[in-house]
Design brief:
By secondary structure, the protein is an alpha+beta fold. The chain is about 25% helix and about 25% strand. Strand 6 (about 110-115) and strand 7 form a beta hairpin. The structure holds zinc ion.
Length: about 170
């Protein structure tokens, strides 16, 4: 396994809609990339990491939101589709492509997501709270959408100013 380089905003790959993973791409190469993505995400202290964040313009992501006992819960979503959403949650959100930036974001409380696993098997999951937030955030990455687009205009302007400051001090690389 090896660590991958994480793309920082505003790298174009983060603003590009990913292409679906085709049937023939469910192969050992995909499994290796996914392993490396888990390692990269854990190393960076994140709970989710999407392919575009490691410069792969494809529709898949990994996530590890620990359960109540702190037990790891590694999941891979390939070609994710949000089937339905419900409710609302407001909370702080970060992104490994925006180091040091945390902002309050409103998301849905519950999602039903359909995806394929690493072998191409289809599955559906009903998730709440942080897991739902994470699935929505990472599926956005597959669509070339970053959490900046989910902020209120005021917060987005504040965030952009903070990014400029961090870039100037070299803390964004
Ligand atoms: Zn992100």
């Amino acid at each position: 396994m090896s660590l991958m380089e994480i793309a920082r905003y505003p790298e174009p790959v983060l603003l590009t809609v990913g292409t679906p993973v085709s049937e023939k791409e469910f192969n050992p190469d995909l499994a290796t990339i996914v392993d490396n993505m888990f390692e990269t995400m854990h190393d960076a202290g994140g709970v989710g990491l999407a392919a575009p964040q490691v410069c792969i313009s494809k529709r898949f992501f990994v996530m590890d939101v620990p359960d109540e006992t702190g037990e790891s819960n590694k999941l891979t979503f390939v070609n994710p589709e949000i089937i339905s959403v419900e409710g609302e949650q407001i909370g702080d959100e970060g992104c490994l492509s925006f180091p040091g930036l945390f902002q309050t974001i409103k998301r849905q409380m519950r999602v039903i997501v359909r995806a394929q696993d690493i072998k191409g098997e289809k599955f559906e999951m009903d998730l709440k709270e942080l897991s739902a937030r994470c699935v929505l955030h990472e599926t956005d990455h597959c669509d070339g959408i970053t959490f900046l687009d989910r902020m209120t205009i005021l917060k987005r302007e504040m965030a952009k100013r903070k990014i400029k400051r961090l870039q100037k001090t070299g803390k964004w690389e």
